[in-house]
Amino acid sequence: MTRPVNTRDLLPMGGGLPDPHNPNPNQPGPPPEPGPITPKPPDLPPLPDFEPLPSPVVPPP
After folding, report:
1. 29: helix, coil or strand?
2. CA-CA distance, 12 to 49, in Å (whole number)?
3. Which residues contact 12 (CB under 8 A, 6 or more apart)?
4. CB 18 within 8 A of CB 11
5. How confident is the model over 8-30, as pLDDT tens digits?
6. How far is CA 31 from CA 21, 23, 24, 25, 26, in A?
7. In a 3-state reduction of DSSP, which class is residue 9?
């Protein structure tokens, strides 16, 4: 005969330790603080035209 399940033995919903920043895991927590906005890097100048390198000739073994 199996013993009845005790609710104390079950993990809370979400499984794991309670979040100290969000005491109620079923409700969304506060939004994260916005970080510093990184400036957009300047556009790189276009690459100059270049001649394609000739394919190397591999001598047969």
Report:
1. coil
2. 63
3. 18, 25
4. no
5. 666 555 555 666 665 666 666 66
6. 11, 14, 14, 14, 15
7. helix
Q: Are 21 and 30 in contact (CB under 8 A)?
A: yes
SS3 state of residue 22:
strand
Give residues with Cβ within 8 angstroms of 19, minimum separation 6: 25, 29
pTM of this structure? 0.15
Given a cut of 60, whether residue 39 has pLDDT beyond it is yes
- Is the pLDDT reported for residue 46 higher than 70? yes
- Give dist(CA 29, CA 23) in Å, integer: 8
Alpha carbons within 13 A on the beta-carbon side of 38 = 3
